[in-house]
Amino acid sequence: MIVDSHCHLDYFLKDGDLDGALKRARDVGIGCMVTIGTKLSTFDTILGIAVANDDIYCTIGVHPHEAESEGLSAPDLLIEKSQHPKVIGLGESGLDYYYDHAPRERQAESFRAHIVAARETGLPLVVHTRDADDDTVSIMREEYEKGAYPALIHCFTAGPELAKASLDMGFYISLSGIITYKSAENIRQTISNAPLDRLLIETDSPYLAPVPMRGKKNEPAFVRHTAEALANIKGVSVEEIHSTTSDNFYRLFTKAQRPIVN
């Protein structure tokens, strides 16, 4: 079984291809998918997809791009909504200085509110960081000193400093199709030194299709190509990657129910 720990299934719903994408994923052994919240205003749609499918869970949160219009200054709403059994994590939240769609101070304020919610609920926070490694590490460490919380660096594209800081705090790292790109040698080098028992895989679909699907709309079925790339990086079998990353997922996302295999 393979887990796609981060996808955006609401895009497939809007395109009228959700049923097809789910069938294609299940046909190649994707046993669990997590559809990620990016806006509070679309949470009901995200939750609806999860509720309608036994093998799909969701998160609730505000992406840094949306921090100006929907960013949070307190964790209360996240804590309340995350009580639903299908909500297994918080986010994605964090910092994005590449696009700067929201003021950086609003991104940071919302990020901290998500961290507080993670600390209080015990649910893992899905962290988005792009071109903001130093500030991301600084905020995560400051908040960690107030009390531990679980977290996952999603779609890892950073260097060894962020990886080490995250791992030192007990966090996990999730890898997308980017690790299949020729330009990502520095990421592959960093990941080669990361412990396998802290790694997850994801698509971030419909974005970032892996080689050999690059240029196409990404979908959960394609996570198997990322698994193959990670197997090559770590020098282990694809089967071990499937098994270990799935085990890691269920260890981190403790509300998710592992399917019973007959």
TrEMBL record:
GO terms for molecular function: hydrolase activity. Its EC number is 3.1.-.-. Belongs to the metallo-dependent hydrolases superfamily. TatD-type hydrolase family. This is TatD family hydrolase. It is an enzyme of class 3 (hydrolase). CDD domains: TatD_DNAse. InterPro entries: DNase_TatD-rel_CS (IPR018228), Metal_Hydrolase (IPR032466), TatD-like (IPR001130), TatD/YcfH-like (IPR015991). The keyword Nucleus does not apply. Keywords: Hydrolase, Metal-binding. Gene3D superfamilies: Metal-dependent hydrolases. Pfam families: TatD_DNase.
